[in-house]
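In this supplementary section we document a worked example of the pipeline. Step one takes a protein sequence of length 362 as its only input; no multiple sequence alignment statistics are reported here. Step two produces a three-dimensional model, which step three serialises into structure tokens for compact storage. The input and output of this example are shown verbatim.
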Amino acid sequence: MSIEFIGYIGTQPGSEIHPRSGPAIQPEYVAKVARAHEEAGFDRALIAYHSSSPDSAFVAAHAASLTTRLKFLIAHRPGFIAPTVAARQFATLDTFNGGRTAVHIITGGNDQELRADGSHIDKDARYARTDEYLSVLRQEWTAEAPFDYQGEYYHVEGAHSHVKSPQQPHIPLYFGGSSAAAIAVAGKHADVYALWGETYEQVREVVRQVRAEAARHGRTVRFSLSLRPILAETEAQAWARADSILERAKALAQSNGFVRQEPPNEGSRRLLAAAAQGTRLDKRLWTGIAGLLGAQGNSTSLVGTPEQVADALLDYYDLGITTFLIRGFDPLEDAIDYGRQLIPLTRERVAQREREAREKVA
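The serialised model returned by step three reads:
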């Protein structure tokens, strides 16, 4: 089974150790990062979504116009435009970029952020709305004739799209969310279920849960894991770099007046539960930044030489992970470095693992 690498395209420079500066949208920076990811051998790049961020679909359209092979994972929050409209927008974009679109469904666990865009329902209701939204979205993508849909949140009559994605049966749906309500929706709709970088034990259990939920609907799901690899020529140098990143992150957080709060979503709570076990877990999972900043998003790392980190990625591969979403604390430079050292090495080792598996069967 082949693996997929997903990077990250921001619209301005910045990370936990680099203060953001300049306009929120810097087209030249987007171009530079998109081209770097394509040259580095990434399969896709994520464009994130937040209630105060640039529109992710428009950013992807710009990046697609500057690349030829790189695919895109567009973070999208259900509930703020009609699912029929969103379906046609994504199918239109996918036609223009030659089938390079995937959509990452982020229902949202932060009540305050959701209210900023006008949504005031609770989390369970949001996932119920997402369930309906994805049901309509997929029908708009695939239905050959007009259809009706009657739900609590959406009611459409005679819905039909003349524009169809070149991807069959439809644009891939990635899905994030760790609560029981999220896993129920993921099992019903997700093509790829996305986790943050958790321990082997945590990943094994979530994969089991999602597979069981998908099986109830006669479906299979692939799995993605998000990590922040920290590489160096020696293991000691890699851990020293991790320590340096932690100190720089502390300094930047203090200068920004950051106050750690109890996370509002289950995914962050799971990362903090891992961080409570220690800063170094399993072979080389590092929870330093997650513990410092309250696990706000993708914040755990694999630390070591490229060979050591590739071996750790293979451990996750053996647990069922076939997509790795990786980005660094030095976003542009790390993406280039991953392309030189980590991505080709990991692909080679996965191919070797697959050859050995075929030989055993033969």
